[in-house]
Amino acid sequence: DSWGIFTFLCAALCNLPALPALNCSEELGPGQSIQQTYDLTRYLEHQLRTLAGTYLNYLGPPFNEPDFNPPRLARAERVPSATVDLDLWRGLTDNARLAANYRAYSRLLCYLRVLDGQVGTAELRHRLAHFCASLQGLVLSIGGVMSSLGYPLPAGPPAPPGAPLASNDFLKKMDDFWLLKELQTWLWRSAKDFNRLKKRVPPAVVTLRLEARGF
Amino acid sequence: EMHSQYERVGADVTMKCGSMDWDAAVTWTVNGTDIDESHLNGSYLILKNVNLTQTGPYSCYEGSSWHLKYQTYLRVGTPPKEPVLMCRSNNYPKGFYCSWHLPTPTYIPNSFNISVIHGTKEMVCEKDAVPKNRCHIRYLQLFSTVKYKVTLTVTNALGKNFTTLTFDEFAIVKPDPPESVVAKPVPNNPRRLEVSWQNPSSWPDPESFPLKFFLRYRPLILDQWQHVELSDGTSHTITDAYAGKEYIIQVAAKDNDIGTWSDWSVAVHATPWTEEPKHLTTEAQITETTSASTSSFMAPPTTKICDKGAMVGSGAVAVCWTAGLVVAAYSVLFI
């Protein structure tokens, strides 16, 4: 039963983001971690451009056409969307901002890993695997920033949504298309999120945390 | 009653004299000037292969009574070609504007209608008073996955045409060029120029949406530009300028992460600081300083030998120290 396999895979693969990243972040102040996370999002955005190009070609037309602009089907949202009201976005607390990023990438990683298991060509599998590894690094990096600022990590990704797996080949491809689109948009948004965080994390916080740990 | 008609360039136009019979005797005028009978077919005026110069008021008068029977204003023009449409966000994240024009004139009045569709929603693009042919939209949401589709339709009496643009929110971000670019020489530094500028005033939130900059400079006498990319700050010191040569300098801006570079700023000119022919003066001042010390114990007033600015460059420092030592030596001698 493909639905059962999907559930199992997702549950198994998605327990990883719960790992605390304290080992990495203890050496860096939150300011530096934020800069690193920002750099990671830019790197991933760059990587995604190549990956998306290859993957959309694999899906074939019309998905690989530059003007392809399908309407968003009213299906259950698998991944929290990056789209947000401007004032709401501005008003996000640092914690909420980081948590939104953490949750989004955790789930995106989960879905990408499932994709990895399904694609046909070896080249695509290799690229996807590499991308997933980098994305895993991003999730850990965000987790590290949150820990160093004293914020709790959001709970692990919830069980896969109740919506059934795509019933036909075309709809499955549409899902893949939107997954990549959502990922691309999140990476653009994260650059802006981390720009904002960079300005708001005072250097003084670093000293306080070190003192608290008895250094 | 003045009628109105529009005709295409190159068309054949037949004008009837109102309700007059075909074989009635009439006179046609254009702009008050009589039209030769050779252009008449009975009481009809025939204009073959009309051109733009034939735009004007045409009147038809009954032969003998010279009663005005019919008047029309002829406008010769063309149906619109596909318009040129451009959309750009120079004020991200506030919104974007679109502007348009026709590639060739139609010579008759045109009306424009613009529609903006985002997913399933139709958005209103508010027309600007100035400049005309421009409208702006405010973003309701940021970081959208759905593209914007803008359709511009142009209509006139002879036809219509349209064009469409489809784009992502991020793709059209292009700031205005940096403002208030200033380039100054640096005193006592013959190879330096200090350049500073400001964020374009149309960019609403440089704190959350920082800009990065691209500086280019060259001496007027050379064609090759030198480039520097700067990820933050609104100033830069050029340190490899050719001494004594006038430079031309420009700056461009781009959102740190998305979109494209702005156009180049207005060019500024500057020449690095050059030393005035002061070699003789410098030695003379040392002599003056030492002879001044023989009569008073006071340190000489600050001379150009020991300028604060002259701390850079070992030559200047050496002179500074030398003067200081000489002064100190003589002062000690006379205590």
Describe this structure in words.
The complex is a heterodimer of chains A (215) and B (335). Chain A is mainly alpha-helical. Chain A contains 8 helices and 1 strand. In chain A, helix 3 packs antiparallel against helix 7 (169-200). Chain B is 11% helix and 41% strand. Chain B has a 5-stranded mixed sheet, with no helix packed on it. In chain B, strand 9 (84-88) and strand 10 form a beta hairpin. In chain B, helix 1 (279-295) packs parallel to helix 2. Chain B is elongated. The termini of chain B are far apart. The chains are: A mainly alpha (215), B mainly beta (335). Chain A binds chain B through residues 42, 67, 69, 71-72, 81-86, 89-90, 178, 181-182, 184-186, 188-189, 191-192, 195-196, 199, and chain B through 93, 119-120, 139-147, 149, 166, 170, 207-210, 256-258. Strand 1 of chain A pairs antiparallel with strand 15 (141-142) of chain B.
Describe the structure concisely for a colleague.
The complex is a heterodimer of chains A (215) and B (335). Chain A has 215 residues and is mostly helical.
Draw up the topology in text.
The complex is a heterodimer of chains A (215) and B (335).
Chain A: H1 2-13, H2 22-25, H3 30-59, E1 84-85, H4 86-91, H5 94-118, H6 122-148, H7 169-200, H8 204-212
Helix pairs in contact in A: 1-5, 3-6, 3-7, 5-6, 5-7
Chain B: E1 2-8, E2 13-15, E3 26-30, E4 33-34, E5 40-41, E6 44-47, E7 56-62, E8 68-77, E9 84-88, E10 95-101, E11 111-118, E12 121-123, E13 126-127, E14 134-138, E15 141-142, E16 148-156, E17 159-167, E18 179-186, E19 189-198, E20 211-219, E21 226-230, E22 235-238, E23 247-255, E24 268-270, H1 279-295, H2 314-333
Parallel strand pairs in B: 1-8
Antiparallel strand pairs in B: 2-6, 3-4, 3-7, 5-6, 7-8, 9-10, 10-14, 11-12, 11-16, 13-14, 16-17, 18-19, 19-22, 20-21, 20-23, 23-24
